[in-house]
Amino acid sequence: MASSANYELVVDDFKHKGVQITMRKRNGKQLFYMIASFVGIFLPSCNYSLDEMQSLQFILLFGFVCIFIILFVNTVSSISSETLLIISSVGINVQRSTILGTSSIFYNLQEIQDVVIVEAVTMYNIVFQLVLLPKNESFTQKSITQKNNVNNKLHPLFQSFKPKLQDLQTIYQHIQEKLFLIHQDDR
Description:
Blueprint: E1 2-3, E2 7-13, E3 18-25, H1 30-42, H2 50-77, E4 81-87, E5 91-97, E6 102-108, E7 112-121, E8 126-134, H3 137-141, E9 155-157, H4 165-180
Antiparallel strand pairs: 1-2, 2-3, 3-4, 4-5, 5-6, 7-8, 8-9
Helix pairs in contact: 1-2
């Protein structure tokens, strides 16, 4: 089990059968920000007279509602956990969980060419990403990514977590060990 500032990595090894890799966000600060914005907006309004407070309350209430909506949408839409279930002779199942529910997509072993770590250089840093490479073009049509996207052949894993390179290397080693060791001749 490895850890970072914003996620927790759990690896359950099932020996020759496969491995389950789960990455979870740690308890977020969204609730703290919601409470802080509530206190920061309504507590100062207690020092004003009744006439001043009515116009100030409307402005503060509008600001609070905007902040609350932004934080709520961010909390609901963000992925809270992502699980890779690698089954040695079958393939990879990717399960993403949010507050609203869970979505799952299965990548068959015959459709997977490889799983690699790619790096992207931005203006300020280098970002590493674990991606799944398909063997054929028909596989990309099932992709979750947009078809017009240039990178529609790459299927990113753990994209919302921005894991460290060391954690990506650990995941990569497990995937290569469990999934591709038996099928080296097919690649």
